[in-house]
């Protein structure tokens, strides 16, 4: 007598389609997150929902640091944010946060990015928030790149693979 495993096969297929495809590995290192001091004393973060509805809130005259976070505001869920990617606007240039953000609104440009970045916007675009922290002209390009590496090293966002301090990148690559 043959065993009918159709129901179990359907369950496994649905689990893969509905759960496993959204799996993301996070590294939550207390020692890395508690890094102090950073090369910049403080950052003043703000955010907008992903999309072009509130793009005017993103500074068009400042370079800075940005992060894409998955957030779902809810009256039931506790407040939560998953930092998925960290970058900078103004790498060796005066490119503004708004100009850099517009790159992420351009599907053709997104299609040229890594598979991780494409996945981020393909899977979670409705829950993404664009966090940004403008910096003044007193912050050099080198400092901006350093804070990007320090933030990426402290949080190890799953969709950011470069822009890490060499020691941390080497350690991460040993396990991921």
Task: Provide structural commentary.
This protein has helices spanning 6-18, 30-33, 97-103, 107-111, 115-124, 141-155, 166-175, and strands spanning 46-49, 63-70, 82-89, 128-135. With 176 residues, it is an alpha+beta fold. It has one domain. The protein has a 4-stranded antiparallel sheet with strand order 1-4-2-3, sandwiched between helices.
Summarize the structure.
By secondary structure, the chain is an alpha+beta fold. It has 7 helices and 4 strands, in the order H-H-E-E-E-H-H-H-E-H-H. The longest helix has 15 residues, at 141-155.
The largest sheet has its strands arranged as 1-4-2-3
> Regarding quaternary structure, how should these chains be classified?
single chain
Count of helical segments? Answer: 7
Secondary-structure class: alpha+beta
Q: H/E series, N to C?
A: HHEEEHHHEHH
Percent helix among the residues? 25-40%
Largest sheet: 4 strands, antiparallel
Question: Overall pLDDT, averaged?
Answer: 92
Number of domains: 1
Beta-strand fraction estimate: 15-25%
């Amino acid at each position: 007598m043959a065993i009918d495993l159709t129901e179990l096969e359907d369950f496994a297929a649905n689990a893969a389609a509905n759960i496993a495809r959204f799996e993301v590995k996070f590294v939550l290192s207390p020692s890395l997150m508690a890094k102090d001091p950073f090369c910049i004393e403080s950052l003043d973060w703000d955010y907008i929902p992903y999309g072009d509805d509130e793009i005017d809130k993103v500074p068009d005259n400042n370079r800075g640091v940005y992060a894409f976070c998955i957030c779902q505001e809810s009256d039931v869920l506790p407040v939560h944010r998953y930092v998925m990617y960290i970058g900078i606007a103004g790498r060796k240039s005066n490119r503004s946060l708004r100009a850099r953000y517009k790159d992420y609104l351009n599907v053709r440009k997104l299609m040229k990015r890594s598979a991780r970045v494409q996945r981020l916007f393909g899977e979670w675009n409705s829950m993404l928030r664009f966090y940004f922290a403008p910096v003044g002209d007193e912050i050099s390009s080198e400092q901006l790149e350093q804070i990007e590496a320090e933030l990426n090293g402290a949080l190890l966002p799953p969709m950011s693979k470069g822009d890490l301090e060499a020691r941390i990148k080497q350690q991460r690559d040993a396990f991921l």
